[in-house]
Specification:
Strands 2-1-5-3-4 form a 5-stranded mixed β-sheet, with helices on both faces. Strands 11-10-13-14 form a 4-stranded parallel β-sheet, with helices on both faces. A 4-stranded mixed β-sheet has the order 12-17-16-15. The protein is built from 18 helices and 17 strands. The chain is of the alpha/beta class. The protein folds into 3 domains: about 90 residues, Ubiquitin-like (UB roll), CATH 3.10.20.740; about 80 residues, 2-Layer Sandwich (Alpha-Beta Plaits), CATH 3.30.70; about 350 residues, 3-Layer(aba) Sandwich (Rossmann fold).
Amino acid sequence: MVNVKINNRDVSVAPNTTILDAAKANGIDIPTLCYYPDLNINSDCRICSVEVEGARNLLTACSTPVKEGMVIRTNSSKVLNARRTITELILANHDTNCTACVKNMKCELQSLANQLGIDENRFPSVLKQQEVDDHNPSIYRNPNRCIKCGRCVDVCKDVEGTHVLETMYRGHDVEVTPKYGKYLTEEDCTFCGQCSSVCPVAAITEKDDSIRVLDALNNPNKHVIVQVAPSIRVSIGEEFGEATGGEWTGKLVTALRNLGFDRVFDTDFTADLTIIEEGHELLHRVKTGGTLPMMTSCCPGWINYAEQHYPDMLGHLSTCKSPQQMFGSIAKTYYAQTEKIAPEDLFVVSVMPCTAKKYEAAREEMQVNENIPDVDAVLTTRELGKMVRQMGINFQELEDGEFDNPFGITTGAAAIFGATGGVMEAALRTVYEVVNEKPLETLDFKDVRGMQGIKEAEVELGGAKVRVAVAHTLKHAKQLTDQIKAGESPYAFIEVMTCPGGCIGGGGQPYGTTNQKRQERINATYQLDSEMPIRKSHENPYITEIYSKFLKEPLGERSHRLLHTHYKPRVK
C-alpha cells in the first residue's frame, strides 16, 4: 500500500491509484469535467487540479498517481481559485441560456458552477455563434454549448473506432467537430449516440421527438400505441433517482398509460418474432449453401456502419428487420385490420435505448404502406423520463400495470435482447431445439454473456459442431468483419451490437452510464429472464397464433414482405 496525506488525513491506497480515485475511496470529492470512467484520461479541463507539496504547479488528480509520502490539498485557496477561474473561462465561451437547455439541472458544467459559487462571471462572453447541426433524424449537435472536453472524441475513436468527431485547430480556435466542420450526415456517423451519452453539457443530444408524440396523444383522430424495448425496463428507474440494477416493468406500463397512450405493447413480442424469422433464415442458409456467416441485423448503428464501410459484405447481414420495425409492420397491418383502424390514423411510438433507432424508423425501406412509416416516432429513455416529469407523474408512487394483448405475452429469450449476447442466446435456444428436435438440458449459454468485446461459443446442431460469435462496439465488429472478408471466419452466426454492453448501454439511456452500470443492468436482465414462465421464443403462444392467423409460416411470402428488408451501400 502507498501512504499519503489528503487534506491532513492519513490515507493508504494501492500502488498506481490516481489522486482522484484515492480521494474518492476516502469520501473526498474532487470535481471533474473532462474525466469520465471507462474513457481515456486526457487532463484537458484541469478542473480536478490539486496542490501537492513540493510540486511547482498544480497537478491534475485524474491523471497523477499517488506516491509514498505525498501530501495533497484538494481545497486550498490556490486550488479553489484556479478551479473557479477555469470554470469562468469555460462559461465565457459557452451558451449560458441554461433554462432553454435540455440538460438544465442535469448539466455537469452548471452543477460545477453552482458548487463553486459562481453567481456572476468576472469575464465577458467571447462566444461566437456557430451553426447548429440538425440535419439528421437522430443527433442534434450544438457547437455553441461545446466545452471542448474531448469525451465525445474519445468514445467515437477509442470505443467505437469510427473517428467521426475530431478536435480541430489550436488555442482559442479549437473546435470539436466532424472533419472540417461537416455535418454528421456528410461523415460516416452511425448515429449510435454514444457521444451524446458522455457529453457533460448539451453540445450533443438526441433529436427530441417528445413534442410530436404529445401532439399525437392530443389528436382525437389518432389512435396512438407505444412499444417498449427490452432494455428500458431495467434503466427507466434511473431517470427518477432509483438505483441501477432494478426492474420497473409494471410502473413503466402505468406511466405510459397515464401519458395517454391507447395501447401499451411490448417490443419483446417482436423480439420473439425476430428469433423465429432469423433462426429459420440461418437454417435455410445452412441447408442451401447460402452466405455464411450470417450476421444479426437488429442494431441500426451496426447496419449503418456495414452499409458505409463494408458495402461488399451486406449479403452476410440477416434480412430480418429489427424488432422495432417488425412491430411497426405488424401494427400497421395485422393490428390495424383487427381493430378496424386505417393505417394513416394509427400512430406508432417506440421507446428505445438508442438514438440510431430514430434514423432507422425514418429509412425509406421501413414502410409497408407507401408514404406511411411503420414507426412514426422514437423516444429515448431520457426523452420518456422528461415527458413523465413534465406531466407531473410521480413514477415511484405508480401501481404496477400489465402490457396489453395481443403483443404483451413475451418470453425470457426476448427479455435478454437488451444485453450483449442476448440475441445470440435467444436464437440458440430456438435453433437448437428446432434442429435437434429435443429440449435443451440448460437454457443458459453463459459463454456469450458478459462485457468482453468478443465472445464465442460452440453448439451442436444436427450432429455437427457449429461456432458462433458475439461482438459489441463497432471496433470489435470490425475485427470479425475483416476476418470474414479475408475468408478466415470459423463462425456460422455472429451477433453485433454497436453500443458497449448492448442496448442496455445505448446512446439514449440515462446519463452517467458506465461499464459498472451496464453490468448491473445486464444482471437485472438475466434475473428477469430466469423468472419468466416461458423462456424460449418458439414457445410463445401468441407467436404461434399470429403465424396461424396472419403470417402463415416463417420466411413465407407475407412474412418476407412485412418482416424482412434489404440494405444498400451508403459509402460517403
